[in-house]
Give the backbone structure.
Amino acid sequence: MPSYRDLLQAAKASVEEVDARRAQELLDGGDAPLLVDVRERDEWEQGRIPGSVLVPRGNLESRIENVAPDRSRPVLLYCAAGNRSAFAAKTLTELGYERTISLAGGYEDWKRSGLPTELPRSLGPERTTRYSRHLLIPEVGEEGQLRLLDSRILLIGAGGLGSPAALYLAAAGVGKLGIVDADVVDETNLQRQIAHSTNSLGEPKTDSARRTIEALNPDVEVVAFRERLTSENVERILEPGWDVIVDGADNFPTRYLVNDASVWHDIPVVHGSIFRFEGQVTVFKPGDGPCYRCLFPQPPPPELAPSCAEGGVLGVLPGVIGSIQTAEALKLALGIGDPLIGRLLLYDALSGEFQEMKLRKDPACPVCGEHPTITDYIDYVEFCAGVGH
Amino acid sequence: MGRFPALRGQLLADDELAPFVNVYVEGEDVRTRDGLETPVDDGSTVILLPAMAGG
């Protein structure tokens, strides 16, 4: 019967082994291998080789395809001393990986050779539990969750669309949430604005939303702006730096202002709007697709575009649209998937149908076009009052 | 618009599509095709996309 030593020798003899210096050359060269750390999580948390992904050897067979779907790409494996990685390399060869390499001497030899290491950040036990359903998704994982905790998302409006967005972004662990809203909670809001409650009637929406968010997830820092977004305050509000803007405003002047500011600051906007049974969602990403002005160069005359206060809205509709906006915002923050850039999703609650439309960048757009004619904030209220039509 | 004359005033300005209205035939903006002359086949979907500000 073969001993451990026999098995190890057989594994080492059957796989390609390199020393730390050679591994470094491979990683720096063209067609660089994927670097996989097959140690246990507690070892990984003590330090690792930069650029490596953690796949403990016990999970190797089940998880490797998630991190290395392309079997023709070389895989460089390491553990502490080069034994587990030799077995792992042998396993990957059996799984059809074309070139698997084991770092002889492992992480210890890498460190001894004076090559760079890093101490990975880790979520810690409490956050690992709180975000466990995210951590199980390969596209998110610990790195993605850390990225969410580092991300900064600005909500324009804490009303129908802003409420579900605030709740789900907070629950997802977005580290910093800005909220711009000048209103106070009134009774007519409560049919749909789920970040607020009967207890918060009469309170500023920013305060009410902050309390709801903090109760849901203490990881989130709320930055409240109890004011209406205007040409005068927009630069101050954008000053802290935001990765994504979620536009849930309730009026055209703010929509155009958000658009112009986002183009000039190069911040993607997840746009949502609602009326009665219908909602629209799209992503305006400067440089990558059209902007709001490409889609709607001019606002409609007020009599053709009643607001929800005038025409009503089904209470759950902002829940649907605000949640889709949140999914888009999280995708942008994580850098995953296909955001709704250059595509507009139209939802009709009555027919129960989604339609998708293609949006195109307008080369003659006055803000994001080839020869912009609007390069500074204008009077948006006047622009939307029909002056100049 | 022959069937719904009231739409004319809401969709057109100077006999052109108003700048705050977008019309899509099979998901494509008619402005990128033949404008108001864009052919509509039997059974194809026409969507009038209004600008809405509600949130």
